[in-house]
Design goal:
Blueprint (H helix, E strand, L loop, with lengths): L1 H11 L6 H14 L5 H15 L5 H50 L31 H6 L24
Helix pairs in contact: 2-3
């Protein structure tokens, strides 16, 4: 069978078998292997479909490429903006976590979970406010709490009890 292909390709002079030679080889193949007769039919249909398919117009393909490039540029712009927003949010989250850790140190709580996470690697869920000694830095509490006001000089306002007589 291969000798027949070689002889036909030499007759074409191109060194490659032509479509007619391939059809002959496939016909011989189908005769010798009846269980694979579907293969030559499928290849012939595929070749026919490829020859009938219209070639894409160059202008349409270029327009599609330009449209895809514009979409890509817009998507890259959105991705860059999202990355900037994500970096900004991460910076804000880090600052908030630092403030919470400082407040936890002032009130003697766990700086990671405030005693609310049984799986916490620091306190195992026992770090509620008052468990630890407050932070030794005296300036730290003044960042979060106002100075206590001493007792007022002079008389305090009179305490009046509500009158519930109107309810009856």
């Amino acid at each position: 069978m291969l000798d027949m292909i070689a002889a036909q390709s030499d007759a074409n002079g191109a060194g490659m078998p032509g479509p007619q030679a391939m059809d002959g080889v496939l016909a011989d193949f189908a005769r010798n292997n009846p269980s694979l007769a579907w293969l030559p039919q499928m290849l012939a249909m595929q070749r026919q479909f490829a020859s009938n398919a219209p070639a894409p117009e160059p202008d349409a393909a270029e327009a599609e490429i330009e449209a895809l490039q514009e979409q890509l540029a817009r998507a890259q712009g959105r991705a860059d903006k999202l990355q900037r927003v994500a970096r900004q949010l991460m910076a804000e989250l880090d600052a908030a976590q630092e403030r919470l850790a400082d407040i936890a140190a002032v009130v003697g709580a766990c700086g990671l979970c405030w005693g609310e996470d049984a799986q916490c690697r620091s306190c195992r869920g026992r770090g509620k406010p008052g468990l630890f000694a407050p932070a030794p830095d005296p300036a730290l509490p003044s960042r979060f709490f106002a100075e206590p006001v001493g007792p007022a000089t002079g008389s305090s306002p009179p305490v009046t009890r509500p009158d519930h007589s109107e309810r009856r």
